[in-house]
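pipeline: protein-struct stage 2 | run 1193 | DUF1211 domain-containing protein
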Amino acid sequence: MGKNRLEAFSDGVIAIIITIMVLELKAPHGADLTALASVLPVFCSYVLSFVYVGIFWNNHHHLLTASTVVDGRVLWANLHLLFWLSLVPFTTAWMGENDFAPLTVAMYGVILFMSAIAYTLLEKALIVCNPRDAVITVALAKERKSYASVALYLLAIFTAFQHVWISFIIYSLVAVLWFLPERRIEALFKR
């Protein structure tokens, strides 16, 4: 089964997710810095979510580039990932509109956690359907970054109820961890 339709569909859904997020940004009422301060929480949550959606898109691109074939499991695993990513605009808006209230920050973490689980399942599905010597199979044989992310998301979810800003910092640290695509995949492409 070819992977072109999967890539095109995923790119389209991710573009819509980003569009929905940016449409949630409303201009402040007023033309001074005080007016801008009133929308700062919404803007900060948008920036973090934009970075996250961009990271998922970038790494998703690398995953599919490293893969030679896809099958039905991969299609469903991909839809599972896109489902969780499609909830990012909702939790982004909810968190920003409520000035990072603990429950909203925790729910944001739940969506990131579930997206990370779905991404890991997509990786596993791609490994299973590709030949043993495929770039993706070799590069992702020992995956640690995904497991570390899942653990950090869980920590941030529970921390949100005591220290919201520590959760936000943890979410930011995980984003930094994933900012560069999987280096093992890029290294195998260079060979």
